[in-house]
Automatic annotation (TrEMBL):
Residues of the Glycoside hydrolase family 31 N-terminal domain: 63-261
PANTHER family: GLYCOSIDASE FAMILY 31 (PTHR43053), MYOGENESIS-REGULATING GLYCOSIDASE (PTHR43053:SF4)
Annotated Glycoside hydrolase family 31 TIM barrel domain residues: 304-618
Family: Belongs to the glycosyl hydrolase 31 family.
Residue stretches making up the Glycosyl hydrolase family 31 C-terminal domain: 627-710
Keyword vocabulary terms for this entry: Glycosidase, Hydrolase
A single BP term in Gene Ontology: carbohydrate metabolic process
Documented EC number(s): 3.2.1.177
Record field: catalytic activity: Hydrolysis of terminal, non-reducing alpha-D-xylose residues with release of alpha-D-xylose
GO molecular function: alpha-D-xyloside xylohydrolase; carbohydrate binding
Origin superkingdom: Bacteria
Protein's name in the database: alpha-D-xyloside xylohydrolase
High-level lineage: Bacteria, Bacillati, Bacillota, Bacilli, Lactobacillales
Amino acid sequence: MKFSDGYWLGKDNYIINSPIEAYDTEVTDTEISGQNRKDLNVYASYQRLNTRSDMLDVGNSTISLFSPTHDVIGVRIKHFDQQDGNPLYDLAQTPVKTKITRSSDAIKYKSGSLEIEIPLHTNFRMDFKYKGEKITASELKAQASIDDLSGHELGKVMHPNTVTGAQALFKDSDINWADHFMREQLSLLPGTKVYGFGETFGPFEKNGQSIDIINRDGGTGSDQSYKSIPFYLAVQPGIKNIKNGKCYGVFVNESQTTSFEVATEVVDRVSFSTRGESLEYYVIAGDSPKEVIGKYNKLTGGSTLPPEWTFGLWLSTSFTTDYSEKTVMKFIDGMAERDIPLSVFHFDCFWMKGFEWSNFEWDAEKFPDPVGMIKRIHDKGLKVCVWINPYISQKSRLFEIGKENGYFIKKEDGNVWQWDLWQPGNAIVDFTNPDAVEWYQSLLKKLLDMGVDCFKTDFGERIPMHGAVYNNGGNPEGEHNFYTYRYNKAVFDLLKQEKGDGEAVVFARSATVGGQQYPVHWGGDNLSQFHSMADTLRGGLSLMSSGFTFWSHDIGGFEENASPAIYKRWTQFGLLSSHSRYHGNIQYRVPWLFDEEAVEVTRKFSKMKQDLMPYIYKQAAQSVNQGIPLMRPMYMEFPDDSNCSGLDRQYMLGSQILVAPIMEESGVVDYYLPEGEWHHLIDGRDIHVESQGQWLSETYDFLSLPVWQKIQ
């Protein structure tokens, strides 16, 4: 959100107050795991304090500094001491020794090798230094407490470019009426690239973009995101063979909508703001992008290693296709007859009757013997996944049960919050209600007792933000983004309880901070087109830059009919991803319905992934241990090679395998091979390259693509 009118002025109708001078400090103790941690409060006034009279009629910001873990410093900026009712993300705090040093003109707060320095009794600023070198700063007037008077009658006839002029026109009651925002701006060093913000589909480098952190169901080709994460990674690339780059992460600990202006409002800063009277963020420092991402991942709960069988090929019924047990078995047997390894069969929405989603009951006409069918699928060596969501149609037999027991989100008048989007009269399960969680889990347990192995936890983005009442009394703006955390946690916890820690897995579309604890996530509704294949990968690499470890996507694209070329190229990409699933909307995704070569491509690459499984699973376990992605952007593996900073059509699968998916009908692919010794894994001949860092443009048939192994 932009509040400025150029570099010096504020926009009409905003009163912008900024800390001008830090005039006092206070050290406090906080107990973490039985040990005391030293925290620091800094008091900063909104005008210069030259005389005692300057202490009258002036606002303050209280800036609290604290450290949840080594090399991480939290900053909480508070105007008024108000409760906002937003849910709080669970953060893993560990005892850490902090150091506070005060001189006559400055105070320093240090955790590990990360330090914040704030000058006293002069122009306010906060300098962040890692190992003695400045990595970012909050400069004079970067922080702000902002009153938005645009909806007020007086606000329509004034131009409050100065605080004094604005306050002269408004009474205290007017100011209290105003909408209020808190803002911070952190500077970017020259050449710094910004990544992250969750699964965003715009340009991979986020410089120059405005991004709102709010989960929405908008497909994979818009500015909306199923997985919005208020975290960014700032990387100043080094020069090849000279490790002089700098990197750090910024996590904004706000569950309600947070707006980021990434080198837009001020071109050498990242601005972030949220509605309310306080703003909390963390600066995370490290020696490399991997180290920073790992620290953020661990701070927000760490990742969970899915069972090994989940890394194999998943086949879906698709969505609106017509399916029954006969169709399902025909597809499963067809894959086996063509010697195509398969790991999981997924039943999408129409395993239940239409208009009754979700009732969690098999459509008896199409699936008269679900228990027997699941056993027959298990006997073929496959696992079974079924589609679920947290929305209950008014036609579902569960609607009255949920309504009578208060299991749904309500309106302010006490009625159930409903709409007709997706299903008629949809109600939404309220996971802030422990009884509703237990009820929902009991419905899923019946499916697990039938033999179902895991769930596709679809939706969770279209959650009401206004006029909604939750059981816990929370702010619906904050509960909106947090909803997916509660939803996936409820399902994952049940699976752990029933299947055991090592066997729990969901296939989730929506996510928020900490969602990496409940894998796996897939990329949502893409198109069956080459450009959407590129959009999908770009979104996945952005999610992998935001603390997530595993990711998948709909092979062939979800919408539309896929051409044979799209199907075969996407098959290559999908089977060289973390997790691999065929899924579509109106079209079955079995290869023999495209052409015979599609069968050959699917067989070759599914067997290739099977052969690579010892490497993939070892790398997956190492990734979980370090808190880094299995599918990782090139800049993350080669941070000292500036050529890798913008690469978004290739990636590393673990630390040793480079994959460059082909996204052209012609089979032409342009990609970059970083410095080192590489061995080509696909071609039948033995190809070794000693690269000095080179760009390649090559043409491949449907049975090959650039897959290179880095020789250690």
